[in-house]
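Worked example 3 (structure in, sequence out).
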């Protein structure tokens, strides 16, 4: 997370784990709270959420190219 005095810490670094449901309950609550008040991170969340299902279309070899 990066500090921003206007919005508090941003959550961009946690969005992938958030989308994949890989955060602790406390981390999930913190990210959800932040997304509700930060348009920039919310827009990034939409992009990550849309990209995550595409990972299933790749086979293991393609992930390392």
């Amino acid at each position: 997370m990066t500090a921003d005095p206007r919005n508090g810490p941003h959550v961009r670094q946690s969005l992938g784990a958030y989308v994949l449901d890989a955060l602790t309950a406390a981390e999930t609550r913190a990210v959800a709270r932040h997304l509700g008040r930060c348009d920039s991170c919310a827009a990034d969340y939409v992009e990550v959420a849309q990209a995550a299902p595409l990972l299933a279309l790749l086979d293991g070899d393609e992930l390392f190219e």
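Notes: The radius of gyration is 13 Å. Helices lie at 15-19, 25-35, 39-51, 60-63.
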